Amino acid sequence: MLMERTTHDVVRERLLALMQSLNLKPFEDGRAFVDTAPVDERYWAVKAGLGWTGRNGQLIIPRAGSYFFLGELILVHPADAYDSPKRNLCGNCRACVDACPAGALCGDGSMDARKCLSYLTIEHRGPLPEEAGEQMGDCFTAATVVRKFARGTALPARRRKPPLRLQRNCSE
């Protein structure tokens, strides 16, 4: 049986290639993780200075937005340089909170999973609440609707590596 590669597989392969380019050996010098360990990726990304956590609870990277996958290398070697956390640039903006079709965003970076359409369609075990179908409209997940309103979500015009393929979604 042919197994289809997931985004997790692709990101992990890229992390392992990065380790190799740094002459690091997996399991000896460190490990690559992509949703495979109890690591709070967003917290460490903020601490490392990649971006800030927006009102929608997603990591926002300046000039790149929030359309990306997180993975991490946890290494046994100390780093020779550290970046400072970025300042939160959301200010008084609440566009993402107001755009959430189910009202799941609390506006402080947290959300009510019982209302979150992305949570209900991906992680929740059990039937969807009746109101979820109406709130979703033609969307499979509402995260794309919320993301397009977050500050700093413009995608870069050109990338060195081709991005992971995005499927047509309700935000287009």
Folded structure, characterized:
With 172 residues, the chain is of the alpha+beta class. Helix content is 26%, strand content 7%. The chain is built from six helices and four strands, in the order αβαβββαααα. The strands form two sheets. It has a two-stranded antiparallel sheet with strand order 1-4. A two-stranded antiparallel sheet has the order 2-3. A hairpin with a 5-residue loop joins strand 2 and strand 3. The longest helix is centred in the N-terminal third of the chain and has 15 residues. It is globular and about 50 Å long. The two termini are 34 Å apart. The C terminus is likely disordered.
Keywords:
alpha+beta; disordered C terminus; single chain; two-stranded antiparallel sheet; 172 residues
Overall residue-averaged pLDDT value: 79
Separate helix tally: 6
How would you sum up the global shape?
A: globular
| Percentage of residues in strands | 5-15%
Radius of gyration: 18 Å
Uncertain regions: pLDDT < 50 for 5+ in a row? 154-159, 166-172
Structural class: alpha+beta
Element string (H = helix, E = strand): HEHEEEHHHH
How much helix is in the residues?
25-40%
Oligomer: single chain
Q: In angstroms, what separates the terminal alpha carbons?
A: 34 Å
Strand order of the largest sheet: 1-4
Number of strands: 4
Describe the sheet with the most strands. 2 strands, antiparallel
